[in-house]
Design a protein that fits this description.
41% of the residues lie in helices and 15% in strands. The chain is α/β, with parallel strands linked by helices. A seven-stranded mixed β-sheet has the order 1-9-8-5-4-2-3, sandwiched between helices. The protein has a two-stranded antiparallel ribbon with strand order 6-7. 47% of the residues are buried. The protein binds pyridoxal-5'-phosphate. Pyridoxal-5'-phosphate binds next to helix 3 and helix 4.
Length: 361
């Protein structure tokens, strides 16, 4: 059994993939070829954003908006204490100071009330994360943030919705990742930024290509953060079946929840939210043993994430310590993710459920 089955998906779209990458091999525009613009148009329309800017990774999709609002030394950027490392890395790499906020124990997302207490005169941006696929509470987060720009880290929530609006379009800046195992993944690294503001979009496009306003005319400091044409072509092929996959993911997750509800705290969606279930995650008390027992039964599991951000060695060395963000710390000790993808069969799912309940003891 696979944790994420990308082979089943590839079988469905192999013809379209072959056609798409053959097109790229024929026209030869490997950098910023026509597929990139085509993908950006399709993704902007899918999310209901004015602009989509395709970039080289989800990490760059977080970094470029911070650069566009001028984040640097002396600035503070608020991030949740529980996420993938990239969420905070982009803050530190620009020389700004991360300010951690604890999470809600049910959604695993930033607690808006605690956000209010973390904002100071130096706060220049807030990054909220849609962990495991469920969108953070953007109504309250944007309310609390006021004029401070909010960035939605939608690396795990592409395709999810909140109050009828799509993930990536719930804050002034949306950032997603197309890492192969994400809900919409390419065959390498890729990401995208979503923004409504025309000027900010133009600036991010310049930053993506070395701060160029015209060829060899560099009006600001940027980077090379473009998405490869081949990855755009692959994503266009995958996008054709993505809405159906979102449905299939929801069905798999609902079935898991029906079968596990009596034994575990299953994922809970806040009113108005849907989820793409980038991960299907439950809590267990004796995680090492549960994982070992499942492994013996041939069932792969994963932990997202075994350490909260503030206790990563690089931040612990700067003085953060256990006890600073207890909700995040407890989650890091207890969470375990089980196989989750659109093509998970009922029999495999039944096996996971049976073994997980047995392993829990
Ligand atoms: C995957 C992920 C990222 C980084 O995306 P990459 O494409 O791997 O750079 C950032 N934030 C979160 C929450 C993620 O899950």
């Amino acid at each position: 059994m696979e944790f994420i089955d990308l082979t089943a998906q590839q079988k469905r779209i192999r013809g379209e993939l072959d056609r798409r990458w053959n097109d790229v091999l024929s026209h030869g525009q490997y950098i910023m070829g026509p597929e990139v613009a085509e993908l950006e148009k399709a993704l902007a329309s899918f999310t209901g954003s004015r602009h989509c800017i395709a970039v080289s990774s989800g990490t760059d999709a977080l970094l470029l908006p911070l650069m566009a609002v001028g984040i640097g030394p002396g600035d503070e950027v608020v991030v949740p204490a529980f996420s993938f490392f990239a969420t905070v890395e982009v803050v530190s790499v620009l020389g700004a100071a991360p300010v951690f906020v604890d999470i809600d124990p049910v959604t695993y997302n930033m607690d808006p009330e605690k956000l209010g207490r973390a904002i100071t005169g130096k706060t220049k941006a807030v990054i909220a994360v849609d962990l495991y696929g469920q969108c953070a509470d953007y109504e309250r987060i944007r309310d609390v943030a006021g004029p401070i720009p909010v960035i939605e880290d939608a690396a795990q929530s592409f395709g999810s919705m909140q109050n009828g609006r799509k993930a990536c379009a719930l804050a002034p800046f949306g950032a997603t990742s197309f890492f192969p195992s994400k809900p919409l993944g390419c065959y390498g690294d890729g990401g995208a930024i979503f923004v409504d503001d025309d000027e900010k979009a133009a600036k991010i496009k310049r930053i993506r290509i070395h701060g160029q306003s015209a060829r060899y005319q560099h009006t600001e400091i940027g980077l090379n953060a473009r998405m490869d044409t081949l990855q755009a072509a692959i994503l266009l092929a995958k996008l054709s079946i993505f809405p159906e996959e979102v449905e299939l993911r929801a069905r798999v997750a609902e079935r898991y929840s029906d079968l596990l509800r009596d034994h575990f705290d299953v994922p809970l969606l806040r009113p108005g939210n849907t989820s793409v279930y980038a991960q299907y995650t439950v809590r267990v008390k004796n995680r090492p043993l549960v994982q070992e027992n499942l492994k013996l039964a041939g069932i792969p599991t994963a932990v997202h994430y075994p350490s909260p951000l503030h206790l990563q060695p690089v931040f612990a060395a700067k003085g953060w310590k256990a006890g600073d963000f207890p909700v995040a710390e407890k989650a890091a000790e207890e969470v375990v993710s089980i196989p989750m993808h659109p093509y998970l069969s009922h029999s495999d799912q039944d096996k996971v459920v049976q073994e997980l309940i047995r392993a829990k003891g």
